[in-house]
Amino acid sequence: MAKEILLQVEGPTETITLSGERDERGTWRLWVERGGEEERREWDDWLDALLTLDENPWEEYEPVTVHPEFRSKVWGAVLQRAADPAELVPWFQACFPDEPVPDPRVWEEKCPLPRLAEVIARVRDAVVLTGAGMSTESGIPDFRSSTGLWRKIDPRRVATVETMEKDPDLFRRFYGERLRNLEHVRPHAGHYVLAEWAKQGIVRAVVTQNVDGLHHRAGSPEVYELHGSLRTVRCHRCGSPADLEDFLGGDACGLCGGPLRPNVVLFGELLPEEEWDRAIRAIRESSLLLVIGTSLEVYPVNQLPMLSTGRKAIINGSVTEWDHRFHHVIHARIGKTLMKLDRLVKEMK
Ligand SMILES: [Zn+2]
Question: Which of the four CATH numbers 3.40.50.620, 3.40.50.1220, 2.40.170.20, 3.40.50.2000 does domain 120-348 have?
Answer without folding.
Answer: 3.40.50.1220
